[in-house]
Amino acid sequence: MARTAANDRPQAALASPEASRIEDDRETVIVADRVTAGYENRRAKTRLIALRDVSLEIRRGEFLAIVGPSGCGKSTFINMIAGFLKPLEGTMTVDGKPVRGTGADRAMVFQDYALLPWRTVERNVQFAMENRGNRPSKAEQAERVAEALGLVGLTGFEKAYPHELSGGMRQRVGIARALVTKPAILLMDEPFGAVDAMTREAMQAEFERIISQTRQTVIFITHSIDEAVMLGDRVAVISNRPGTIKEVVDVDLPRPRLEGDAKSSPRFAELREHIWSLLQDEALGAKEAK
Q: Which of 220, 205, 143 shows the shortest CA–CA distance to 168?
């Protein structure tokens, strides 16, 4: 199994404002055991291997950021957790059970918003509850939509349509849609990648605040080392394709980070430099492969 760099130091709960890490004895919720994943071309009888022999344990309430070069299998990894893709080898389990498809305990936030343009904000968020077998009553749906929009700061925009919103606001709708079903696990595939730098930083701060309230388990893909260090309890560094885990780095910075001076601290610089040292050769390798 991939291990952290400082496994024996005490960790604090994510819910605490001063928490930097989750407790060591927090139960494991997601386990990837020697997973190899990729895509088969049956016509050509070939395989493209995206990830090879990946083992990783993710604890309940943890914020795990994943960084790596383009094409290294980051999205493949969370697609397996989501149930969109099956491993070619090895097992992926959630709460001790093999992942055999999608489930109400998991929700995905995509980079490209994926909103329905003909629906208002509130109806886009409500859409996440409409096709579930245990669909809440209309009154409860309305209550949940209001709560989710309040969490992402969109109260007052319920009747707006996606084309009337900025890119950052549209992504907030996507996050609210994921939150409204109250999943235990949030899977986020570069959710802030399509917004400008200032909006991105503001959304990072908002998301840190939201997760401190909901205490969900988060797996967050990003190409930004700064973003990974600012948000993650741990950062999993993935090698060039076929992706393997080079190291899982503990982020021992106090929270809240985005509202404090974490980015100007010497420890932030140390962590950033260390992760970049792990990625530098991988990034160059990915460029040469193209």
A: 205
Peptide bond before residue 17 is cis, with ω within 30 degrees of 0:
no
Cα separations (Å) of 4 from 37, 58, 237, 281? 23, 11, 11, 21
- Domain extent at residue 137: 117-182
**Residue 34: both structure tokens together:** 């020697």
Domain end (from 182, 205, 225): 182
Q: pLDDT (tens digit, 9 = 90+) per residue, 62-98?
A: 999 999 998 889 999 999 999 999 999 999 999 999 9
Contact between 247 and 2 under an 8 Å Cβ cutoff? The reply is: yes
Number of domains in the chain: 2
Which residues is 226 bridged to in the sheet? none
Q: Within this chain, do residues 71 and 213 fall inside the same structural domain, yes or no?
A: yes
Tokens, residue 105: 């305990």
pTM of the full structure = 0.84
